[in-house]
C-alpha cells in the first residue's frame, strides 16, 4: 500500500497521529513535542521519542531534509481558549507558534495541512486572529482552505464552518473545536476549487449511547469528593446563583438528564473537574477518611470522573488502541500521575473526530491525484 507521510507537530501524546493511522494510508515520519511528560507517554505508545522544538532552526532543517506529504498540528490552544489569557498572537510563548508552523509550511510545501485548535479561535480578537491565519494560508502560502471562497481577491467564509463538535462523532462529550484543512494550490492547481467545500459534520460510529455507558464501577475512593469540599462547591454555586450567574459545579449524569454528556475536558492537569461531576453512590465508602482529604467522603455519592473515563471520552481507551482480538492495549507509562493523565487527555484531541477528518482528506487526495496524474 502506498502511504502518505505525515509529520506530527505539537503532537502531545499523539492523538492526531493515531487518528490518521487508523484512517489508513498514513504513516508518520517525524514528530515534535516539548512537554517532558507528554514525550514520555508518546514514546511509550509509539516507541519513538518526539522531543523536538518546532521553533528551532535545527528542527526546521530536519523537516526540510525529509520528504513528507501532510503537516499535522494541534497547535497550543491556551492562547486562544476562553480559559486562557486572551492574548492570542501577543503571547510570545504560545500564540507565535502558528508563525513557526507557517514558516515550516513555507519551507517544505506539503500537499496538505491539518490544524486543530479550540473553538474560541474563531471569535478571538473579534475574528482577526482567524482572519490572519486564513489569509496567511490562502494568500501567502497558497493553500485552498476548506470552507473558504475568494471573491475579488478577498477571502469569504463563515467562521462557524470550521467548528465541529465531538458529540456528533460518537462520543458523549460537548467539545467544539476548530479544524482547518488546506490543499496546496501549487501542486494541484485549479482542481482544488472542485473539492467539497465543507468539513465532515458527523460520523456513523457510535462509541457510547451516552455518558452512563462509559462510566467505571466501584472506582477508587480517592475520586469521591470530601464532604467539606462538596459543601464548599454547593455554597459557591448558591452565591453565584444569587448574583444571577450560572457558574458552579455540575453533576453531568443527574437523573433528570435523559441523555447525559460530558462538558469539555480541560487541559489543566485535573483542575476544573468539578464541571464534570458524577453521581454514583457507594454506601461502602460513605464517611471514609481518605489520605490527603481534610474531611471524610461525602454522603451523596458525588465523585470526579476518572482518568480512564476521560480516556474513553477522547477515544484513546476502548477504541484507538484495540488490537486484532479486540483487546485494549492503551496504557500510560509507569509513574505517570493522575494529574498528568488528566492533563494529557484534556490537552489531546477526540480521536474519532480526527479519524473522520483524515478519511475526508483521503477522498480529496484521491480525487485530486486521479485528476492530475
Number of domains: 2
Structural class: alpha/beta
Mean pLDDT figure:
92
Described by the principal axes of the CA atoms, the overall outline is: globular
State the helicity in percent bands: 25-40%
Do you know the CATH topology of the largest domain? Rossmann fold
- Our estimate of the beta-strand percent is 5-15%
Return the CATH class of the largest domain. Alpha Beta
Give the helix tally.
Answer: 11
CATH architecture of the largest domain: 3-Layer(aba) Sandwich
Give the CATH H-level superfamily of the largest domain: Vaccinia Virus protein VP39
Unreliable residue runs: none
Which radius of gyration do the C-alpha atoms yield?
A: 22 Å
Q: How would you sum up this structure, described in words?
A:
There is one protein chain. The protein is an alpha/beta fold and 373 residues long. It folds into 2 domains: 4-207 and 351-372, Vaccinia Virus protein VP39 (Rossmann fold, 3-Layer(aba) Sandwich), CATH 3.40.50; 211-346, DNA Methylase, Chain A, domain 2, CATH 3.90.120.10. It is built from 11 helices and 11 strands. It has helices at residues 15-23, 36-46, 57-64, 97-108, 128-140, 185-188, 227-242, 307-313, 316-320, 338-346, 351-372; strands spanning 4-9, 26-32, 70-73, 112-118, 143-145, 148-151, 154-157, 163-165, 176-184, 278-279, 302-303. Strands 1, 2, 3, 4, 5, 8 and 9 form a 7-stranded mixed β-sheet that branches. A two-stranded antiparallel ribbon has the order 6-7. Helix 1 (15-23) crosses helix 11 (351-372). It is globular. The mean pLDDT is 92.
